[in-house]
Specification:
204 residues, mainly alpha
């Protein structure tokens, strides 16, 4: 009997989360945790695996827009850094606090991804560059981020949608890399669990 992949269902469940019903900070912090893990997984992809010349060129071009880059600039942030450092800068600047449950969910997510093989972590990178923009659109439209004082996060989401989509975007650069559906099923179930465990209902 052919294997029936489930990662598309997990992605649909993530996109269909009622994001507006959850506390905005419990959305921002998982973005920080996953962005930091993404940078680590991308470095594993670049440094621990063998690629043919064309694949290596595409990966390096994509990574140049994610790691030690200056393509995120907002207010007093203009440094060269990984994308997670942008979020961390404003979280520290605004002295934002993460709930225990959200932080604990982030730790479990990070540990679960790190347990994957290098080749599996690479596949999650390729899939994310294609699937995350659709998730970011749902998060972007769920709250009035500017009114909440978190316009930096609105900028972060919009910029990533821009970087990942369209001709020559990060999704375009990585779309030809092969991915094992079993690996994607495992990863996206981990990502779904991050939100299921880390999101806190918005206080009325």
């Amino acid at each position: 009997m052919p294997y029936r992949s489930t990662h598309k269902q997990s992605i649909r469940e993530i996109r269909n989360i009622d994001w507006k019903a959850f506390d905005p900070l419990s959305i921002i912090f998982p973005s920080l945790f996953s962005a930091r893990e993404f940078a680590g997984s991308l470095r594993v992809t670049l440094n621990c695996l063998q690629w043919n010349p064309k694949q290596e060129r595409l990966l390096k071009e994509m990574a140049a827009g994610e790691l030690q880059t200056d393509n995120l600039q907002y207010e007093d942030y203009s440094k060269v850094g990984d994308h997670w450092e942008f979020l961390n800068h404003f979280i520290e600047k605004l002295d934002l606090d993460c709930s225990f449950s959200t932080h604990h969910a982030g730790d479990r997510y990070d540990n679960a991804v790190k347990m994957c093989k290098a080749s599996e972590r690479a596949m999650t990178i390729f899939s994310r560059e294609i699937e995350l923009p659709g998730i970011f659109v749902e998060i972007l439209t769920a709250h009035r981020w500017k009114d909440l004082g978190y316009v930096f996060y609105e900028y972060y989401l919009k910029r990533h949608i821009q970087l990942d989509t369209g001709e020559g975007g990060h999704g375009d650069l990585t779309k030809t890399f092969n991915c094992d559906p079993r690996v994607l099923d495992h990863f996206w179930s981990i990502r779904l669990k991050l939100y299921q465990e880390g999101l806190k209902p918005k206080q009325k």
